[in-house]
Amino acid sequence: MRLPLPLPWLACIAVAVTGCTTLLPTGQEVLPSHWHSYDEAKASIEAIVPGTTRAADLATMGLDPYLDHNIQLLTYSDVVLRFPLGSGVATEQLDTGLRECLAAGKSCTGYAITARDIQHDHTGPFLQDALGFKRVVETRGWTFNALVLLVDDRVVYTLYGGQPNLYSREVTRQPLGPVQNLGDAIPMPSLH
């Protein structure tokens, strides 16, 4: 009479048959926003017309710092820290809207907008990853940041940037696998 396979062996066979990559860890770093891509975020900022768009219009466009978690309200002091006047750039060289904002004192405020959607996926061989011999982590996604400056409730300046197509691949090798860091786990005796 033949005995059934022990449960650990059945689990190993199931893993081998199902295509192990689905069992590898994944992660996602999302700073919530109503945008699903860099291009959507860029289009929102490009739709703002300096000199015409009002704070109420921004809220209608989905840029409301009281509802959106990724918008930071900036005071005049925050704006001055981002654009120090004594930095060697002549005031005449600055954008008209930026000059207007810096000259407006406390009437100058702003929105600092940040959004990102980044995926971290283990893509290497399952057993090497699970046992810690070799880990391959691929990171994909996008990041976006923008600055919107207002004088009173009128937008005078916009600026945006970020990474529309973020990608990196990190490979970590540990020749001893799970025992590589064993020495770090052993407490050292006190020398008192």
Task: Summarize the SSE layout with pairings.
Blueprint: H1 7-18, E1 26-31, H2 38-46, H3 55-60, E2 71-74, H4 76-82, H5 96-103, E3 108-122, H6 126-130, E4 134-151, E5 154-173, H7 182-185
Antiparallel strand pairs: 1-3, 2-3, 3-4, 4-5
Task: Output the keywords.
192 residues, alpha+beta, 5-stranded antiparallel beta sheet, 7 helices, elongated
Description:
With 192 residues, the chain is an alpha+beta fold. It has one domain. Helices cover 27% and strands 33% of the residues. Strands 1, 2, 3, 4 and 5 form a 5-stranded antiparallel β-sheet that branches. The longest helix is centred in the first third of the chain and has 12 residues, at 7-18.
* Low-confidence parts: none
Q: Kindly state the percentage of residues in helix.
A: 25-40%
Would you tell me the overall average pLDDT?
Answer: 81
Category from helices, strands and their pairing: alpha+beta
Q: Beta fraction of the residues?
A: 25-35%
